[in-house]
Specification:
CATH architecture of chain B: Orthogonal Bundle
Bound molecules: adenosine-5'-triphosphate, magnesium ion
Structural class of chain B: mainly alpha
Mean pLDDT of chain A: 89
Number of strands of chain B: 0
CATH topology of the largest domain in chain A: Rossmann fold
CATH class of chain B: Mainly Alpha
Distance between the termini of chain A: 28 Å
Shape of chain B: globular
CATH superfamily of the largest domain in chain A: P-loop containing nucleotide triphosphate hydrolases
Number of domains of chain B: 1
Largest sheet of chain B: none
Number of helices of chain A: 17
CATH class of the largest domain in chain A: Alpha Beta
Helix content of chain B: over 70%
Oligomer: heterodimer
Radius of gyration of chain A: 24 Å
Structural class of chain A: alpha/beta
Low-confidence stretches of chain A: 1-8
Number of domains of chain A: 3
CATH topology of chain B: ABC transporter involved in vitamin B12 uptake, BtuC
Strand content of chain A: 15-25%
Strand content of chain B: under 5%
Helix content of chain A: 25-40%
Low-confidence stretches of chain B: none
Radius of gyration of chain B: 20 Å
Number of strands of chain A: 22
Largest sheet of chain A: 6 strands, mixed
Order of helices and strands of chain B: HHHHHHHHHHHHH
Shape of chain A: globular
Chain lengths: 514, 314
């Protein structure tokens, strides 16, 4: 199903980016990048976090105005047009569709309204919904991507939202579809379904550029690979000639191995949950009668499809969710009332799932974000006044040690790329030497190298004597990091001795364990 | 107790409620339009003053009443343009800009009035809108006085409720305005202009606000006084939350406030002997606050309200 189409002869060009350049202050996000796309091919665009992939695609779509460079599109007869820069409407007219890294949907509107937004004359008296619905139902039927048209977007799951984004582009008859990390928030099943649909459309002549950090997806789905590094294109190859290590070499400029796990040595218990139940939390099940002990010096992996109680579980350990029955103890102390502050002081460090939203204050600087969880410490403030110099020193040290790259320690943290935001959070959490680390989807959206950095840091923390809880949907990640594996399903947590993908996969889907 | 029942049964009470509600209907519709697009317009109080002054002055200088209304709307739109330039194009704080517009607009209106009429002691009067006199309808019992003896401006307000509702719910423009107040990037990515949509909504909304002011000098009274707007703009800012940004509920909210106010005046005459008048004067505001507390806790704010948008910014 996911096999790339076999090599074809050189196909006609459909899109050509020439000399695309974009600076953000001192950062060169794109440096004279040339990129060609052929008709009916799937081009994977790879690169580390912050390499400039999203920037390049946003220039293609007119959301960013390039400092230099031009976008050329070719019609069926090979006729060339140059798109005026900085105008999404021009890209749409040239039948380019884009699915952004962060959803661009109006949540207060229905799916149908979102799809039709911008397609109708604004002052048209009657909106011609009937023919639009017909076109959409045909589209949904042909592509296999379905979405409930009259539901408000705010009530949709992320998987459904992703499909709406794709339908939005297809509805406008896109010939070129750009997918910026479409699978980052999808479950593996949803991702497979999406790829199958898109592959079918590609066979009918759609051309696709897609961005992903998951190399197995890239190898299975793309025809050709282009790699960016520090804003420059560093190479291109046909997927059939590529393998994981050759891609990584091109991405980071050197060989890179994922760290391998050595079994941890569990010591005294750190966290204990006894018969804990919680109410259902936003976006998922509540916990049902959960018992768990996490020891110092071990990584406990919680595998499972999200929505099965992960958010309640993470909320509990961060002190955001109260148990309805049962109790929680940290270092043999029963915690009476869970609050984030209490848990923080008890020695729990957390790496939240939604790093942009819960992990940083995006309008504050990198330096400020690095001390935000310990504002009462003497090196941060004295008599109520912030110690700017010491905060800046701290930021310089941490950004260096943890390789946080961006426009500098005084820049707004929103300007960092996803991978660098994660490193920032990691630096803040690990610097305080917490006894227990809650890592919720810690490598989601991270490039290969950043993800292995995260693994390495978690191993280090464990060997130093911390207990680590890893919540992840990515079974491979759980298998490669965890000393002990638990499966979360329907609010229940079950330990498994197996390290077999199919056995655990079955348990994740709710099947019995053999 | 009997007296209170009598108040609710009298046609004059209901007629007064609708009359008091009229300027609020204009104002709340205007605020709704701005906020749906993601821009809070605290200039409303000053724009009311501008509408009241310009509409009246245009008529006093010889324009006919409808001409006065158009001029008031244009003057309101001008201050809306000003607010939009500051908040949409330059992305300045909507609170600060709005309060600035209120101070500037009310002072500018008063200044113009004083400059044009340096000597007068009692404000010159115009011939305002008259109560409608529609054959048969106006003579109906109860319904007649309540609905068909209002002025044309009240009917204009009710008509505009329908227009705004129709635009917001039935046209692509309404969808785009709601979208730009929720997620401007969604609008930009679909090829529409965030800046044009927001500026247009703020200008149109401000024109509506000015009509609320114009009602005061051209229908409720017949002259311009300082301080005559008296917080009506601020009431509209509260009412739009009460209305959850929906035109139909906006009408209900304005009518409710009109009723409280009409009731207050009547209770004052009934019970004024033993309860201080100030208690009645503050009653509509207190009741509005209570209503707001109950409704607004679940208020579903436009997500991008107060958030400026710049092309190509994270
Ligand atoms: N609007 C912006 N303002 C300032 N800097 C920006 C902006 N957009 C991107 N950058 C910077 O440009 C660089 C490239 O960012 P970009 O988002 O294109 O990376 P990416 O390859 O998509 O990374 P990721 O894999 O994390 O999504 C980064 O250093 C980022 O901080
Ligand atoms: Mg990106």
């Amino acid at each position: 199903m996911l096999s790339p189409s076999t090599t074809k002869v050189e196909k006609p060009l459909i899109l050509s980016l020439r000399g695309m350049t974009k600076h953000f202050g001192p950062v060169i996000a794109a440096d004279a990048i040339d990129l060609d796309l052929q008709r009916g091919e799937v081009l994977a665009l790879l690169g580390e976090n912050g390499a400039g992939k999203t920037t390049l695609m946003n220039m293609l779509f007119g959301q960013y105005t390039p400092d230099a460079g031009s976008v050329h599109v070719f019609n069926e007869d090979g006729q060339e047009t140059v798109l005026p820069s900085g105008q999404p409407q021009a890209a749409i007219d040239a039948r380019i569709g884009m699915v952004h890294q962060h959803f661009t949907l109006a949540e207060n509107l229905s799916v149908l309204d979102n799809i039709l937004l911008g397609t109708e004359a604004l002052l048209s008296a009657r909106r011609n919904r009937k023919s639009a619905r017909q076109k959409l139902s045909k589209l949904m039927h042909d592509s296999g991507l379905t979405a409930p048209l009259d539901t408000r977007v705010r009530d949709l799951t992320v998987g459904e939202r992703q499909r709406v984004e794709i339908l939005k582009a297809l509805y406008r008859d896109a010939r070129i579809l750009v997918l910026d990390e479409p699978t980052a928030v999808l479950t593996p099943q949803e991702a497979d379904m999406m790829f199958a649909s898109i592959r079918a459309m590609v066979d009918d002549g759609l051309s696709v550029i897609f961005i992903s950090h998951k190399l197995h997806e890239v190898l299975a789905f793309s025809d050709r690979i282009a790699v960016l590094r520090h804003g420059c294109k560093t190479g291109e190859m046909n997927t059939k000639d590529a393998d994981t290590s050759s891609i990584i070499r091109m991405m980071v400029g050197a060989d890179h191995e994922a760290p391998t796990r050595v079994h941890g040595i569990p010591k005294q218990p750190i966290l204990n949950l006894a018969n804990v139940n919680t109410k259902p939390s936003k976006g998922g099940q509540g916990l049902q009668d959960v018992n768990l002990t996490v020891h110092a010096g071990e990584i406990v992996g919680v595998a499972g499809v999200s929505g099965n109680g992960q958010s309640a579980f993470a909320g509990l350990i961060s002190g955001l969710v109260q148990p309805t029955t049962g109790h929680v103890s940290v270092n043999d102390q029963v915690i009476q009332k869970l609050t984030p502050k209490v848990m923080l002081n008890a020695g729990v460090g957390r790496i939240p799932e939604d790093r942009h939203h819960d992990g940083i204050v995006s309008n504050m600087s990198v330096a400020e974000n690095l001390v935000i969880e310990r504002l009462d410490k003497p090196d941060v403030q004295q008599n109520g006044f912030l110690r700017k110099a010491s905060i800046a020193d701290n930021a310089r040290n941490l950004t260096q040690n943890y390789d946080v790259r961006g426009p500098g320690i005084n820049a707004r943290s929103a300007l960092l790329s996803g991978g660098n935001i994660q490193k920032l959070i990691l630096a803040r959490v690990l610097e305080t030497n917490p006894d227990l680390i809650l890592a919720n989807q810690p490598t989601r959206g991270l490039d290969f190298k950043a993800a292995s950095d995260v693994s390495l840091r978690l191993f280090e923390a464990r060997d130093r004597g911390a207990g680590v809880i890893l919540i992840s949907e990515d079974l491979d990640e759980v298998l490669s990091l965890a000393d002990r594996i638990l499966v979360m399903h329907d609010g229940q947590l079950t330990e498994t001795d197996s390290r077999d993908r199919t056995v655990i996969g079955l348990a994740m889907a709710g099947g019995e364990q053999q | 107790m009997m007296d209170i029942l009598n108040i609710f049964l009298s046609d004059s009470f209901w007629a007064a409620s609708l009359r008091i509600a009229t300027p609020l209907i204009f104002g709340v519709l205007g605020a709704l339009l701005c906020e749906r697009a993601g821009v809070l317009n605290l200039g409303i109080e000053g724009i009311f003053v501008v509408g009241a002054m310009t509409g009246w002055m245009a008529v006093w200088l010889g324009a006919n009443l409808w001409g006065g209304i158009i001029i008031a709307a244009m003057a309101g739109g001008l201050f809306g343009l000003f607010h939009a330039i500051l908040t949409v194009i330059f992305g300045l704080s909507q609170h600060v800009s709005g309060l600035g517009i209120t101070l500037f607009a009310s002072s500018a209106a008063s200044f113009t009035y004083r400059t044009a009429l340096p000597q007068v002691s009692s404000p010159p009067r115009i011939e305002p809108f008259r109560a409608l006199d529609i054959p048969i309808l106006s003579d109906l019992p109860f319904i007649g006085p309540v609905l068909f003896q209002q002025t044309a401006m009240t009917w204009l307000a009710l008509f505009l409720v329908a227009v705004v509702w129709w635009v917001m719910e039935k046209t692509a423009l309404g969808v785009a305005i709601k979208a730009v107040g929720d997620n401007p990037e969604a609008v930009n990515a679909q090829g529409l202009s965030v800046v044009k949509l927001r500026m247009g909504s703020v200008i149109a909304g401000s024109a509506l606000m000015a009509l609320g002011g114009a009602f005061l000098t051209m229908s409720a009274f017949d002259a311009f006084f300082f301080g005559m707007v008296n917080g009506r703009g601020w009431i509209c800012i509260a009412l739009v939350i009460f209305a959850s940004w929906q035109p139909g509920k906006a009408l209900m909210g304005a009518l409710l406030f009109g009723m409280f106010d009409a009731l207050q005046v009547r209770l004052q005459t009934e019970a004024g002997a033993f309860i201080p008048g100030q208690v009645f004067l503050m009653a509509p505001y207190v009741l509005s606050i209570i209503a707001l507390v109950i409704v607004a806790r679940k208020a579903d704010y436009p997500r991008a309200l107060l958030t400026p948008w710049f092309k190509g910014q994270r």
